[in-house]
Design goal:
Distance between the termini: 50 Å
Strand content: 25-35%
Structural class: alpha/beta
Number of strands: 8
Order of helices and strands: EEHEEEHEHEHEH
Strand order of the largest sheet: 1-3-4-5-2-6-7-8
Radius of gyration: 17 Å
Largest sheet: 8 strands, mixed
Shape: globular
Length: 211
């Protein structure tokens, strides 16, 4: 297993000053999940303000009968533990990003990675939309708010957000957004939508609990 800090065109090699006394500072945990090859590592790396931690292995012949690479035949590495990155959305709000491995055999790590998460991003690839069913089911069962982000791969057919929502049988109100996981601004927009949606969901649940 390789543990590496991936270089990023916009990375900062030193962490921001965290010694300031700021009572309004908030750090939130966001999980980035989805199927094999959906773009989780790419998204975390694209938006992270620091050099993201990646735990990747090269795909080998031994895994050909285990990992379904249909539609992502050019993929030659895979996350086997997690990806980690950090982004400061604005002064006082920092998001810690934990990317999950996509293969079925590593799902035992999801419980630990999701512990304490405010919300999740489920990345979807319309060429293999069924691969994100497990992530959708996982977060619905645990009542963790999530946004489905459709990663628009070059050459892939484009579907409207409501079509994806219908195909995944999402609960009413669950946001579906289109994105380019390679683009920092696009990924940041997804994260902002996720935090906003999670805030509304947690507020609604709190109000329900005191009625």
């Amino acid at each position: 297993m390789s543990f590496e800090y991936a270089e990023n065109a916009h990375s900062t090699h030193s962490a921001p000053n965290t010694d300031r006394d700021d009572d309004t500072a908030m750090a939130l945990k966001i999980v980035v999940a989805g199927g094999f090859g959906a773009g989780k590592t790419t998204l975390v790396g694209a938006v992270s303000d620091i050099r993201p931690l990646r735990t990747e292995e090269t795909l080998s012949e031994a895994g050909q009968g285990v990992d379904d690479t249909a539609g992502v035949a050019r993929k030659d590495t895979s996350t086997v533990a997690m990806d980690f990155g950090r982004i400061t959305v604005h002064a006082g709000l920092t998001l810690y990003l934990f990317g999950t491995p996509g293969q079925d055999r590593f799902w035992f790590l999801w419980d630990e990675l999701s512990e304490g998460a405010l919300a999740a991003v489920v990345l979807a690839d319309t060429r293999r939309l069924e691969d994100c069913f497990a992530a959708v089911d996982y977060f619905e069962r645990r009542r963790i708010p999530f946004v489905v982000a459709v990663n628009c791969f070059p050459g892939a057919r484009t579907y409207a957000a409501h079509d994806v929502s219908h195909a995944l049988d999402l609960d009413r109100g669950t946001p579906v957004v289109l994105c380019d996981a390679r683009d920092r601004d696009s990924g940041k927009d997804v994260l902002i939508r996720t935090v906003e949606y999670a805030g509304r969901m947690h507020t609604a649940r709190l109000l329900d609990s005191v009625r």
